[in-house]
Amino acid sequence: MKRTTKKMQFMHNLIDRKQIYNIENSIVLLKKMTTSKFNESIDVSINLGINPKKSDQNIRNSTILPHGIGKHIRVAVFTQGKNVDIAKKCGAEYVGLNQLIKDIQINGINFDIAIASIDSMNTVSKLGPILGPRNLMPNPKLGTVTNDIETAIKNAKRGQIYYKNDKNGIIHVSIGKVNFENEKIKDNLNALLVSLKKSKPTSAKGLYIKKITISTTMSVGINIDLNTIGKTIV
């Protein structure tokens, strides 16, 4: 029989896994459960009323969180010509094309977001087997394949997040750090929900946002009462 650790027992004593909590209490409880020495992320799982087996109901989008995600975002930009100087001036950590691709093939991935100019995508496509599984492949639908390199980098640095549903129709994404002020966590969650609402497939019927669970990197999940989120998800 698997034994429950002291940490898990401590968390289970704080919450009832079967109960739903309002958003304010959820955040307070998350912070009480945090005992790690590092600054844990705030993670959200959102069950959507979509059929992921239908291509027209799959969701993939991005949004900018008003308070960022609480970490330094490392950006790689695949480009050439004058865009190289633009990318460097805007703070991209890795800039280039052929040499950058070789470095990634040899040394692996050391960045969080990849951006590519349109004229470089034919060359960048060879990194599909490396970037694809990590959801880092530049995509025009997400604004990461663009000739407006400056705006793309600024958005990434400001706290732009990318999300898509998994095979069960669930969105998993981080919306900040546990040391964020409670209101900032709420603001970031609302920004995500507004974006999700705009991304609702026209063919999806019935309840769209079915369940929201919030947790930290090391905590158990807390189910949120959707009625306490506000008008965002109506």
TrEMBL record:
**Among its keywords, does the record have Acetylation?**
no
* Keyword hit for Signal: no
Which GO terms fall under biological process for this protein?
A: regulation of translation; translation
Q: Which InterPro entries match?
A: Ribosom_uL1_bac-type, Ribosomal_uL1, Ribosomal_uL1-like, Ribosomal_uL1/biogenesis, Ribosomal_uL1_3-a/b-sand, Ribosomal_uL1_CS
Q: Which UniProt keywords apply?
A: Repressor, Ribonucleoprotein, Ribosomal protein, RNA-binding, rRNA-binding, Translation regulation, tRNA-binding
**GO terms of molecular function:** rRNA binding; structural constituent of ribosome; tRNA binding
Show the Pfam families listed in the entry. Answer: Ribosomal_L1
Family affiliation? Belongs to the universal ribosomal protein uL1 family.
Q: What is this protein called?
A: Large ribosomal subunit protein uL1
Lineage of origin: Bacteria, Pseudomonadati, Pseudomonadota, Gammaproteobacteria, Enterobacterales
